């Protein structure tokens, strides 16, 4: 229940640093009887995997997940599920030059201050490498939500630097290396990334995650509202600087008459709320957007200090993502799945005996 | 540990609905020896209190907090602190017309779906009235943080509808009824609110909360990062639709060379990060912004349905805030204080024995 | 989630010390729709109340519980339930003489060491007075368990000093002031207590709590086994020094062939296990026994030290229970109810979708 | 935070079943800077390991623990520590005959009822094999407690069937295969176990665990008292049916004048309390006793039913411990260490700033 665990009933605990022996996680509280294979998990792990396109880091990580426990005859037994990914490609020498350096925009300085010293190899625990286990755990949640409630969780790159997706075609997302739903923006994205690479710089991005067919009623006010818990889990992803639901920061300039979603017998007439009212799911699409900062691992030289307080120049060579937002798509999906799953079980625990009130109205009018 | 508790070591559990007998909370885990009086708590409660200006609801709530336990001879004893605010002004009849109606933008529909029925008086537990106890609990955390670590937590209205504060003068904030730090915008705000009242409409807002002098090292990666937990606690406030740190959603279009904050022996040269790197406080100001949606309690007529699925018209009369963002300032401060306090104790638990590494560099260069 | 909260889904958080303004608790996570009145709670509070017989302390505590929230039109709404008992009979002066004294067998010394000082009035938070709120919260759990699953939780005094109940007649328990199930021991108990009073001494006791008709399957291995969580909640009652299930410490000398409970198509042939196997309920009676130490508040003079380290004599005058085990009966029932309730909701959260396996066999053969 | 995690700040989460691929655990919240090697953990794992003497099961388990993360340059980094033990000796066919059988005294029946089916190989998750990871995690806690506070945690077999250790010589414990502190009882134990083996039966035992030099002040009333949390963790060990502190169930017949431990300037004059008063450590030895039931895996034939409800005979062949209490000694030490460690960090979190009150008096007068 310390900082490396998330979820109260469906709990995910992870371990592993960039250059350790292995990454791993324990998924506890999964309902029994769910069919799960390593292949199920590998699909999303491969979507997150670096080295799959020229737009992401060329570091190759096999990221082969092995299930160690909790599955018997192909099904979850209800006991804790252990998983491991062995770390293969450990080029420690790539990083030895940053041992004494506090890279700006990185966690080097704060880890030293918090813990007294740090594992400087590839960022240690603060490396985005730990997110692999989130994806593996999220795949378990995704499968259950899909199978039992028909929930679909889909993420996409809604913006990269100045380029914003305008047409949202869910069928396009997996057809390109950007997870971009707008086929008309692919060329611009490609050109932008080529230029960025030449500059040796990086860029921010916005990722949108949508959960469809979420049952009405999930969320535990007043503190563990569904949106509050999703904000927690999404903000816990490396490089995320903002989380918003529905109209998000646009609501600042909206009027009440404009924002409120009209209910009709056929369903909600709009979804400004992003699928959450009063911290509880409405049955509409849950729409979350996250802002991903540009990575600080760039070859543009910068100023910083060493751990003895001396000034120094820093250039981060090596194989890094110029836009971490791209690979964040499956990670964001995983975190949403983990939190929805936990909230589903918590809701069921308290309310399983509730005799259904009126039939839920449909989500949104198409 | 169900949904009405927040915090792991410094835990706040609340109860109370809009028209119940009383609101209350239990603050558990507060360090012993802190001098606390009811007056200390009342200061912030009065800042949140409705009826204090013509821009907020004219409903009068005495909001007088009583401490029931946990204090002896003026000091916290280390045991749980119980607090109560009796509900005085309970005009239940104001709300009887909404008994069968699902007000758009409100939690009526989802509460019925989740729990099978609801306390329809004034929104019941989903009313913003519950935030009074957050403010009382937050005042305890604020006082400890201030006294022991010199932490200052200050919130302000950074935007209301189209009007954005441009000069941030912390000394101005408490001088006006808007918690606005920009004296030059007061007239525009006054005019805007008068017009809004005539329209019978409401408007959104952005609130900014800043914590100064936070020790370096707070935050529990990978899931309970400081920003992730702050996102949780801030998003748990009614009407919040977005949370961002530092440059927030502006990072989407930033480049890495532009975003990263240079470290110098004199301190950080900028604070794009908003005081958090890798989920851990840097010693710079923690800067969080939240987007508050416009309240749906307006006199502009709208369409909706009843709990039998029939269409109906809704007009919310009564005494409501045309901009809930204004009174959210002390609430946002309180939630930040509660989370910082919890993280401080958690950090201390694990790391109290750590022999200090290098001296922390100062926050930001002025 | 600090030390004054118990339960993960059905959570009880309490506050209040012996001589504070009030005692209170928040029950969070209670399923909606349960009919609860203050009278329901008062029944068990009155059973715990001091001053009801000459065998317990003559201190009079009104112990009138008031529900502050979470109930609407007579039913739980699914939101947090706040309750208060105002402290009436506060004779602070009774206790002023122990201000600087560390009473042996009491928590005076350890509270001073842990927190730096203590509320010395009547033991402050360490007083058994706090158990009143456990009883109120437990009554909510009891009612739900009874109504939805037919669970009956009954406690009794199984031993007081050398006198052991031999016949267990559940119908006798409420007919006498000792909660003793053996009508033949009442005279001996009465005589023993009279003698004890003359001596100015106190005596230990054993309380047994039995839960009947508990569903098969409750318990969350490997750490949150049903018996482990019950051990936690029962051991958290003041003065408890031992907890045992089924044959308890008698198993030390048993052989496997003697201990194991045979399963037959008609049910278990015996219940040496006390209703729990592998940390999960079997459907048989859950039988827990707790050892209650003799209170140290006696008029027999004793040696001790002051907080300045000087030796001193201590005599505890005032109105104290010569056997705290008697009034512990409703408290032990309450703690068992709270833990069973929490485990029921947790089980339901994870396993609600499990399609029933074979029909459960009946509990025990009569 | 589901059932396979224990501890709030120092958290241990485990996975793994008898015949799965591997056992594993994640230790989260360990203070940074502690020197830990695999050898440190192996010492206690070897003490627990089966096949080390003729009195325990002849099953050979290599039980070689591998640390996967959280250690850098020989020291804990403050991040989560992943550990694995690969399962080697998996003779699945030994157990195929029990697939449809509900072995009396085992968890077969309740697992089927709870989860809908079960991993029947060697008891699956309900096998005592999972305790290996408790021992590995406990070794981390032990080392920290020893190094930073000089805490020594020692367990021993205080009784086996009718044979009770009378002389407690801590130096004898590791000299014999019984963990027996009384050298005069070794011959009787040897003879008893030989006879038991001939009978094909098993026997119960009592294990005592003592923690010396525990700081005064650990424990979080009112629910997370030190003894309540220790009761939880000790009762969570397979086969434990009772937990008691200090005089335990003997207090039932004690008088107050006899039980209370006199405080003197030289320390406590006795330790009837077992080192805990009011749920808080006193600085005396913490003395816990646990009752271990006789294992039900015996060759004495017994009656039971199958999962279709038919009667059947059961004989458990294979390699089983005739007295599980013997190997439970290092497990009980581990659980005590884990809980003391968690309580130490929790205490430190809340009270680190407390300026020491009077100097603690010494533990017990020798």
Automatic annotation (TrEMBL), chains A, B, C, D:
**Keyword Translocase: yes or no?**
no
- Show the CDD domains listed in the entry: Chorismate_synthase (cd07304)
Gene3D superfamilies attached to this UniProt entry: Chorismate synthase AroC
EC number(s) stated in the UniProt entry for this protein: 4.2.3.5
> Which positions in this protein are listed as binding NADP(+)?
48, 54
The pathway to which it is assigned is: Metabolic intermediate biosynthesis; chorismate biosynthesis; chorismate from D-erythrose 4-phosphate and phosphoenolpyruvate: step 7/7
Residues bound to FMN are: 125-127, 238-239, 278, 293-297, 319
Q: Which domain of life is it from?
A: Bacteria
Any Gene Ontology biological process: chorismate biosynthetic process
Keyword Flavoprotein appears in the UniProt entry: yes
Q: Which InterPro entries match?
A: Chorismate_synth (IPR000453), Chorismate_synth_AroC_sf (IPR035904), Chorismate_synthase_CS (IPR020541)
Which cofactors are required for activity? FMNH2
Q: Name one GO molecular function term.
A: FMN binding
Q: Can you state the subunit structure given in the record?
A: Homotetramer.
Explain the purpose of this protein.
Answer: This reaction introduces a second double bond into the aromatic ring system.
Against HAMAP family, the record matches this protein to: Chorismate_synth
> What family is reported?
Belongs to the chorismate synthase family.
Please give the name of this protein.
Chorismate synthase
The taxonomic lineage of its organism, from the top, reads: Bacteria, Pseudomonadati, Pseudomonadota, Gammaproteobacteria, Alteromonadales
